[in-house]
Sequence to fold (369 residues):
Amino acid sequence: MGNQLSQNRPFSDLPPQMQPAVCRILDANLDRAREGLRIVEEWCRFGLNSSHLSEACKQMRQELARWHTPELRAARDTLGDVGTELTHPQEEQRSSIGHLLQANLCRVEEALRVLEEYGKLYHPDMGAAFKRMRYEVYTLESNLLGYERHQKLLKSHLYLVTSPSEDLFEVVEAALQGGLTLLQYRDKTANDSDQIELARQLCQLCHRYEALFIMNDRVDLAIAADADGVHLGQQDIPIAFARQMLGPHRLIGLSTTNMNEMQRALAEGADYIGVGPVYETPTKQGKTAAGLEYVRYAAQHASIPWFAIGGIEPTNLNDVLMAGAERIAVVRAIMQAEQPTLVTQYMLSQLSRMKTMRAYQAHLPQSNV
Fold:
């Protein structure tokens, strides 16, 4: 590519004294984009074990390297660069993996925009090449967020659904400190503006603990709060409409109370379902309990993550697990607990114990099980 650049670059239109500056700008931003992509690639490879996302990063890095010619590198003047001493306090802090990835993706996107504009002065094909790559990075960012959300969903076994409380943030943070990784904000009484403000704060709190944040019922409020997804009831908008509004990379959950509703949820593309109410609960007044039979049916037929929900407490948790549940959702058991952290830890330990026991049984000879 080096010879091709020498033959085709429109540098003759620039005053000679400006040419080194343009080369330095291109060199610096090629470095910046390559470094940022490498940081993202390492997480895709070692954190997510995603060969697809890793390969996408690698291909873009290799294309950047082809543009990074010896001529551009030769223009580098590190000692004379006044920007090497400039920094910002946020550059010294990374509060989470999500924050780290977002910062570096923004870094790559900004660098590509610079390369797109200044590249037009250097080579006739450079602007178009980096414009295309910038949109590839936008797609990568979207796919990465979607992949991470689904991976976190698969690893989440305890789901807290909130109820109105004066101590809402204290209870939620206590549960997060206990290991909670999935939260749904549910409040049927608050007005929209209050819900948006509370949802945004809860979303930020969840992301600080690397947990998923889901909005109940309202797709519009989920978008406004930048939630990881929405949980729908049987009377809410169809999954297909929610997907059009949310895009392909946010999560959609659906409450189900019987096998027919479950099969429809699977066919319509839900990312996860609620299975219940297992027991009668004041949260779902007037709804007959689906019982443990529906839990047993879900254990045999559900092909996506599902959460047994409805009246589940520490006292009956073992019965639900023995019926086949691997994931549970709770409201009162944590929201009304005197020690939410301890209750969260206890439920997670019981879920982990059951998972270990099932894995052990699966490896035993059939005659011994």
Q: What stands out?
A: The longest strand covers residues 251-256. The radius of gyration is 26 Å.
